[in-house]
Amino acid sequence: MRKKTRIGKALLYAVLVIYAVITLIPFLWALSSSFKTLEEMVSGTISLIPNHFTLENYKQIFVEQELFPRWLLNSVVIAVVVTVLNLLFNSMAGYALARLQFPGRKPLFLIILAVLMVPAQVTMIPNYLILKQLGWLNSYQGMIVPTMINATFIFMMRQFFINFPRELEEAAELDGLGRFGTFFRIVLPLARPALAAQAIFVFMGSWNDFMRPLIILSDPQLFTLPLGLNSFKGQYISYWNYIMAASMVFTLPVLIIHAFFNRYFIKGISFTGGK
Questions:
Q1: Which residues, other chains included, contact 112 with Cβ-Cβ below 8 Å and sequence gap of 6+?
Q2: Ranges of each domain in the chain
Q3: What is the topology classification, in CATH, of domain 62-273?
Q4: Record keywords: Transmembrane included (predicted)?
């Protein structure tokens, strides 16, 4: 039995290693290509080591392309603000649905579940028309306000708070804390695993979003990085070396966020999935 178990584990690890290598190769090729010249990239040869190593691509996007730092700043501002607002509002809504008794709570929860079934593409045109009426097209608020809450993560936080020990809240109430004090000083700090999982998903969704900026933004000064990267593609020629360099810069914040919150991530998923 032990021999069979070892063989099974060895096969499992072999499959996982092969899958990891297959997944990692495209990223390594993109990283290598960011240090190649355009001529080498379009030559048709596939190599993970550049024949002519150059930093000219990074110099081009940061120095010669004047709008690239602005695009990076726009993406950081929008993604960070959207993430913070989602963490606050989704958590408050999830806590209210899990703990508070108020008229219409169950119908409201069913409406949130129904929203989960609606594809985001269906709401693009209505969102555009609403933002046009408000005069929020081509603005930061047009990018932030429609995405500052998310039905998926309201549901996720509700599941977390349903399993949250009531005894801690009762002890806080005995110590004189009100509902808001209990939530912000007791419940929210102990919800770090769920908040970390939510932060990763929300930040990545906002950071990688292409369709929303494409619909809402028209001023190049307000472009986010995904939209700005598209400007490196022309009708007759695409500067793939610049695109690869910009993609590496684009990927770095997501890797940092994931590395920072990784220890909470699996824990948060397991807590919000059930008891």
A1: 97, 151, 154, 155
A2: 62-273
A3: MetI-like fold (1.10.3720)
A4: yes
